[in-house]
Amino acid sequence: MNGPQAHWLDDGRRLHLNHGPIDLIVEAFGAPEECRAAYAQAVERFRTILTELVAELPQLRKPAGPIITFAGSTARRMAAAVAPLAKTFITPMAAVAGSVADEILAAMLAGRTLDRAYVNNGGDCALYLSEGQSMQLAIAGTGHGLADRVTIRAEDPVRGVATSGWRGRSFSLGVADAVTVLARTGAEADAAATIVANAVDLPGHPAIERRPACDLAPDSDLGGRLVTTGVGMLSSLEVAAALERGLAVAEDLRHRGLIGAAALFLAGQSRICGPMSLPTASDTTIRKELVHA
Amino acid sequence: MSELSERFDTHDPGEKKVAEKIRCDACPVMCYIAEGRTGACDRYGNVGGNIVRMDPLTILDHAAETGAAVVPFDDGEAWDGELVDTRRRFVTAIGAGTTYPDYKPAPFIVSQEVEGVDLVTVVTEGIFSYCGVKVKIDTDRHIGDETAVVRAGGEAIGHVTTGEYGSQMLSLGGVHHLTGGSKAEGRATCDAMLALCNKEPVELAIDGGATVTVQAGRPPVIDGKAENRMRVGCGSATIGMFATQWRGLVDEVVVVDDHITGVVSEHQAGKVLGWEDTGIKILGRRSTPGRYFKVSEPGLGWGGTTISDPLSILGEWNAKKGARPGLSLLMVSTTGEQFSYYELDDDLKPVEKPFPERLRKSVDLIEDNCEPALCTVLFVGGAGGSLRAGVTENPVNLTRSVHGLKTYVTVGGAPCYVWPGGGITLMVDVSRLPDNAFGYVPTPALVAPIEFTLRRDDYLRLGGYEAEIRSVGDVLARGGEYLNPRHTAGAPAGNAWPPLVQARREGPPR
Fold this sequence. Notes:
Strand content of chain A: 25-35%
Structural class of chain B: alpha+beta
Number of strands of chain A: 14
Largest interface: A-B, 18 and 25 residues
Order of helices and strands of chain A: EEEHHHHEEEEEEHEHEHEEHE
Helix content of chain A: 25-40%
Strand order of the largest sheet of chain A: 1-2-3-4-5-8-9-12-13
Helix content of chain B: 10-25%
Number of helices of chain A: 8
Number of helices of chain B: 11
Oligomer: heterodimer
CATH topology of chain A: T-fold
Structural class of chain A: alpha+beta
Distance between the termini of chain B: 37 Å
Number of domains of chain B: 3
CATH architecture of chain A: Roll
Number of strands of chain B: 32
Number of domains of chain A: 1
Shape of chain A: globular
Distance between the termini of chain A: 30 Å
């Protein structure tokens, strides 16, 4: 059995942490000795994070309930992120990637003074910005008249960004190519992106292929629910209808204060919910490091 | 070990390929993976009922005689005149995969002919719940009392054991820390041992002693300070070695040491050179002339004592026994790293003076004679009953064969010492293994590569699995149960191709 691994990417400045299904890209900005210490803290926290999650995996794969308490701090982040969404089907696993990113970022920041930092867990990211700092994110699935860069400033409440869709690594109940959500934490963004992407749907449409999740991954938290495995030709009206369903859910989440913004993409069309802060002229001239969301 | 295995065996081994979904044991998640799909990690998949691993299996290439690292062949390499590739290959157990439980034949049983001897190597990764790590730390500094608890991440993972010459020894791990204590203790122990065995640095805190950063093949870092050199000898031995160098250059030399502090004017080595008395007084317990025990407590100062000002071990200077104004004194530690020069003033008090050039050479000589201080890490483990059963149908035969020197045991291709007596308890220097050769299971226990190499006829005689024997070429081409890619690497220098040792010892089969 393989243990957790840490190594520097070829550019020598980004740290790659891997254990089983977890792949993190970690980068800190600031005084070199503070960054070094932050990376060391990230590695230290990473040693046990997967085994802690595995210990509570059976419970984490069950639909979110009100009273379940978890021993692990990452598991508690997951449960807390999905609890406000529990009126539709969701399990804490919907927030696992963002919660791991949050947990590692928190470990990096403990006692450290950094300018900026991010933990990117396969596109679900946790961000840190000290006063006056900002970070630019590149958003996948755009190129249809939308700027594909989003700038997060320190004064924005956003510290998490996550993307969900049926084409991604995790299963989706919906047909969205991608739904990107900005929220307060990586865990909240992750859970909300899952819910919104599930809602971008055309129930019963013959061009959409679906299979029970448990046929594809026997121990999936989605059990026998049908997950999307292919999307055929859709008319532009159908695409719009699917996006509107998702947008309604996103707007609801935004009005409840659970997300800051969302961008929904399907078959060349898109919907924006809330202020996806677009880059200003000065931001585009000063190129900053990009995080692929 | 079979009990350990059973804890992991969540499905009947026979079931593994029957259903279309199989369980991956590559990481703690242990996904069930459907046919044609990958697990949660996207790295391991179910291909035709087999878990396919991306980690390459390591196959070491040995240059024919030297054991030196060789550059892997590629298409661009010039033909060296041989019709066939004559390099010997040794399949190590690194990446071989482990079967739970072990009673199935080990993942690889590889046949290779060398110098007319038909040899078999049985390759497996063994789970060692009974295992530990012995750490030798080259330092004279006192890092903790014998039997003091050694901690990693606040958890007890071992203890300080009897010191050796110029070195402090730690005994870490073992089944009691791994599985006999709390979960956190077991995890900390497993993590620390895994890191040490994989040649990574580990910070260890000793109760009532120092905090030491240990990494195989690197100098120890004790309370934040890197150790450079081992002492050349105790203070008395240093006097003996260098007395002639100091004769005529200085009136008195004291070599400060936590064990035996030496004084040249009183020491036998000084006496035979006709060294005059100086009226010096050492505050310590005199053993024999010029040799003093207990000038200070063990510590991190001069010569492994607590001393930061060496004058603190000197009493009043006695004019009646030779003390005089202007008398010169060299004080030096056993590693030559600390040294000071003094002269007595009119009140016979030593006053520090700039260090004179004429004594520089002798101090440098002490330092030159001290070997680099290193940490060395030995893995110690016992191959239990079921691991041996993976090799032969009658496990005790393997033990007998190992002890009878008919079976050569290696760990990741590195030679190891097999402890006499019952069982197969082995020790190996982790620096001789390829990087990241060790793994773990969450029990917690370490996973170590282990290979048994013996003559084919001997193997069959002791009940080996003849039907499972495959050629090296076949393993290279097809891999094993996990179908993982093969990775050829140069063998670490100094590791002789293991079977060759055996072949030479025994000669060709009769």
